[in-house]
Amino acid sequence: MTEEPFETSPSASAAQQRIAAAVAAILTGIGEQPEREGLRDTPARVARMYGELTAGYHTDPVALINDAIFTVDYDQMVLVRDIDFFSLCEHHMLPFFGRAHVAYVPNGKVIGLSKISRIVEMFARRLQVQERLTVQIADFLAEAIGPKGVGVVVEGTHLCSVMRGVKQANARMVTSALLGRFKSDPRTRAEFMDHLSRPHD
Ligand SMILES: [Zn+2]
Question: 3-state DSSP call for residue 33?
Answer without folding.
Answer: coil
